[in-house]
Every structure is written in C-alpha cells, then in structure tokens.
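Pipeline run #58 for the internal structure catalog. This entry was flagged by the ingest filter as a single-chain record with no existing model, so it goes straight to prediction. Upstream metadata was stripped on purpose; only the residue string is passed forward. Reviewer on rotation: M.T. Logging verbosity set to normal.
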Amino acid sequence: MTEIGVIGMGVMGKSLSRNLASRGFRVALYNRHVDGIEENVAKDFKSAFIELAEAEAFDDLKAFVHSLEQPRKIILMVNAGAAVDAVLGDLTELMSEGDIVIDGGNSHFGDTSKRIDLLKEQGFHFIGTGVSGGEEGALKGPSIMPSGNKVAYSKVQKYLETIAAKDANGEPCCAFVGEGGSGHFVKMIHNGIEYAEMQLLGECYSILKSQGLSNEEIANALEGWMKDLGSYLLGITVDILRKKDGEEYVLDQILDKAANKGTGKWATASIADSGEPATMIPAALFARYISFFKEKREAAAAAYHHNSQGVNISINELKEAYQFSRIINHHQGFSLIARVSDQNDWKVDLSAIARIWTAGCIIKSDFMKELVEGLRRDSSILMNKKWQEIITATYPSAQAVSIACLRNELHIPCLLEAVNFFHGIKTASLSANLIQAQRDYFGAHTYVRKDDPSSKSHHTIWV
C-alpha cells in the first residue's frame, strides 16, 4: 500500500511527488488518461527518475485511490476552479469516511471554504494549502501554508513539514495558518506582495536604463544592494540582467508584455472587499495590464512627445527609494492579512507567516527574516520603531526619485504609490470631509460631525 497520493502530473505535481519520494514516503502518482493527448503520463514520469522507483503510477482513478492506506491522504495539484471540483466529484465516489484531500494549487480561498464545508458534510476532510517556491521550491523544499481542520492537518503534518523548506533554525517553513480558506488567502497575498516586489524591481531597472546604463552595469548596481537588501527576487534579477544568448542579452529580446495567472486580480478584489488600503498590489496588477496593450502604447508613443532627459538621481538614492517602497509593500500585505483574518476570525499569526516565508518561497528575503521578530512585537510594520526610523531616513530619497521620474515621464506606479500611501496614512486631516458633504448633498448619505461626540448621523439641506 502507498501512504500518500498526488493527483496531477504538471510541473508542480511532479516536483512535489519527487520531493515526497526522495524523503522515503511511499507515493502513488495519478494523471488522467486522454487518448492521443495525455497517455501514460504518470508511468512515464515514474520511469524517468530513480527516486520514484518505489512509487506506484496510475491513470485509473479507482486503482489509484484503492492503492492508498486509510485514512487516505491525497494531494491535488490541478488547475484552480472547475478542474478541482471535477476531480473532487470523482474522488468522493471512491473515498471512505475520514479520508483527507489537500488542495495544493492556487485555488481561490472562497472556493476552498466552500469545499471544506461540502466535504465535511460527506464525511471527508479538505485542507486548502498554499504552496510557494515554483518548480525548484516544490522539488527541494517549498513554503507551505495549510488551513482547514486542525485535527485533519495533524494527520498529514509530517508529510508537509518533511518536504517543506527549512528556516535558519532548521524548522520547517510550514505552519497551520487557521480555519477555512485562510491558507489559500495567505498564499494569494504572498503572490500580491510578489507582484509589487517584481514591479518595483522593474521600475528600478527602467530608471537605471533611462540613465544610459548597460544591462551589466545595472546588474552590478543591483548586486551591490544585496548586502543590505538581499532577496530572492533581487538575486534572480541580477542573473536575468547578465544572461546572454550568444552576443545578445536575453532580456533585450523579451517582449514587454507581462502576463498574470489570476492571483493578483483575486488579491485586488479582496483588498476592495476588505476595505484595507493595500494600494501597491493593485498598482502592480494594473501595470501588468498596461504593459499588455503593446500596440496601443506604441501608437500613443508616436502621437505624444516624450520629454525625458534622463533621470538625475544617484544609485544610492534609488536604493533608498526601493527600500522605502518595499517596507510599505510588506506593511500593506501583512496589514491586509491581519484585517481579513479578524473579519473571518481566522486568528492568523503574522510572525508565523513571516517565518515560513523566510525560505522556500518567492518573496524570501533578509527583510522577511527581520519581520519574524518584529511582527511578534508589533503587528504594524509602519508603527514599529525600528522601521519608523528606516522609513524616515529613506523617505527623502523616495520623494526625490518620484519627482525626478514624474518630470522625465517614467512609468513608476509602485514607487509613486508607496510615497502616495505614506502621504495619506500620515495625514491627520484629509479632504474626506468634502467627499462626505458631496455624498450628503446629492444622495442624503449623511455625515458625522466633529463637534458631536455621539457620532450620530447628520444631514444638511444644502440648497
């Protein structure tokens, strides 16, 4: 008998299967059979890797399920949405009471909550699990974010913790996040933070490129930031800038149209639903949307004069602006998790989330390691005294970079949004009183008066 099964032999499913098998677990592999399209996928995969010698491969779902010892433990690695529901529909006809399904894909957290309730009614357990790290992370050790029923999780804990990345203290980068779909929510916000981090690096690249620096010179500059601002994304950006295909830089041959797979859109919708002003994730998402309109951008570039003379800022100023913006991005992301956790009574531990993001995942960084202790003491990065000092010290550079880029017509949505958010959040009196008056004028929506301590609603007949 096998002890754990994996459904879906895509890139991530294959890597997780190899990871499990290499740790000594008896693994069952399943991939659907589609004549002429997907045939013998699991069997061919098994034969290609020595660590899978003891694994069992199937393209018949019933045989796959029956190969697993009870209570069955099955990891789904299929596309989010209808594919998950379709597989679950077939699985529940074959499983026994108490069996556990782990959804390791990028499912929407709302769907995960519904599936938890649905499978519970049928006598099964469903664990929504965020998995970050890409193909290499899944193979060598990802960051894992499970949620749902904690008792059910305890029965699969050893598998997930064993294959997870390890933090600086050797502890697994896997922790039970909370009830419901909290695991997939946290993974979604991880991806949102990632969107903004990637966009920030793209903006730094654009600024340095506007100054006439070569790819190698930009790589050297960014590599110099690694000592103080080291991160996985910064490191791979340096590698990308230096990669050549013959005499040509690969980066220079890549079309400037950025794609997305949906988690950024979901995160942006969740931000709007929550009421939390996490503005940098939407800015990064919409920057990707703008990039996709290549033909329209080319037409507009031809129609409008571009008045750039090159941005006159130092590499150190840019470094500080980048540092400032990254702190704001992480503050917004963790504040969003805290707000939605409170709204759903998930009781997510922000420090624990930071810890499991210190290794194995795409947004791992030296800063994240510092946040583990910082978030244990203070749930707000912005109000933490250490980060207050750094924000205060780096803000002048962020402001200078923003002004210089505006004057030179550079597209820097995330750098600007970091500064703009900071301006708003530290302004004690905003113009929202006028907005409330306008709403009351045309819609009788009422307002609260500052001179009325009861906070009751007031309405004025304006004309």
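catalog note: The chain has three domains: 4-180, 187-425, 432-463.
catalog note: The mean pLDDT is 95.
status: ready for reviewer M.T.
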